Amino acid sequence: MQNKEQLFKNIIAHSKEYGFVFPSSEIYDGLGAVYDYGQYGAELKNNIKTYWWKAMVQMNENITGIDSAIFMHPEIWKASGHVDGFNDPMIDNKDSKKRYRADNLLEDRIAKYEKEGKTEKAAQLREQMEGFLKADNLSGLKQLIEEHEIACPVSGTRNWTDVRQFNLMFSTRMGATAGENDVVYLRPETAQGIFVNFLNVQKTGRMKIPFGIAQIGKAFRNEVIARQFIMRMREFEQMEMQFFVRPGTELEWYAHWKEARLKWHLALGPDQARYRYHDHAKLAHYANAAVDIEYEFPFGFKEVEGIHSRTDFDLSQHQEFSGKKMQYFDPELNKNYVPYVIETSIGLDRMFLSVFCNAYTEEQLENDSRVVLKFHPALAPVKATVLPLTRKDGLPDKARAIMDSLKLDFNMQYDEKDSIGKRYRRQDAIGTPFCITVDYESLENDTVTIRHRDSMEQERVPVQQLHDIIGRLVSWKTLLQ
Question: Which residues hold substrate (predicted)?
Fold first, then answer.
């Protein structure tokens, strides 16, 4: 059995070779921690978004969706704490001129100690690191790096600068003349666009608490460390829902969304052992409960979604900074209050990677081997491919007619190049659930062969039943019910 590091390399190579993810600006040698989604990657990403939006907005009468702007008033980021507090502790190696996150260097050393069986030493280092991070003790972090003789991975030297804070927000300037007052930021999260529109949505949608606002959108963070492919990027996409509740009921709703969100992930049919909850030992100052849903990637368990009980922090901050009341009048209690918020937040790119890792399968067959992406049919980029057995005798015409009858409802492909076996392998590699083969018998009795991706079993069916068969198997109902 291959090791997990090699498996992850194979997954990255496959994603590029088959048009899922490309390094951005590759012909110019790329841009660090930025990626482009190829033709199948874009389809898979859109299908994940559709699944989330349907589960959140369509299936819940009290949740509605918005699409807020990327550029927002700079005061918003002061109110949210991002201007003063959205920092990472960075350290530079003077010889390699490379910059690292101090906590990441220490995390790597902790992982090394654990691998070597030095669990007590690892636990002690973790405790010290977390204490210094919480106290914002930058010199303490440098002291730990020196004490544990951590060297730069590039130069191999321990010639370090001091640790200093580095703000993760991208700033730019707005307007024809660029003065100091014209600074705006690319949003580092989508949540604030929801909070500042709380009253707009509540009033125009006549929403009664409890209710939620959902949004899918791009966010930007000036990550210095590019890690683990599309796990940590500078430009990424989030799927977030902020659920506004009556103060005092927030922990009940927190428990509800914690359970509901894990159910959403497991509906895709992964190995349940690869998912777990990870409760936050230390909470953000505004939270009274927080948990991550973690997925076991080839490089270990990592967060794919967070559920947070944010209290009334965000709306209260915007009320204070804007001078506008961010309150809800509750007719049952006959009083105004600032609602509490439960947040569910997924990194779409991380979700994409978890779906891809879960689907990626290397199979040894009787006389052959194959790499197959076993996506849930509802998420598969291509739902079915039509394959004429040969390029002559009217088979392509028949195949095209079938293709035309199905492409209005399903994302279809047509392929007549190479042997039928090679074409099957190509479709396995992009995760197409069904291959429809048109042969000479099809011309006689209007039947075709459907080959099922996972089992590789084939069945003969009438052409007129194709729409119902495919429709039933790729339907969103299979997930949403």
Answer: 101, 189, 236-240, 343-347
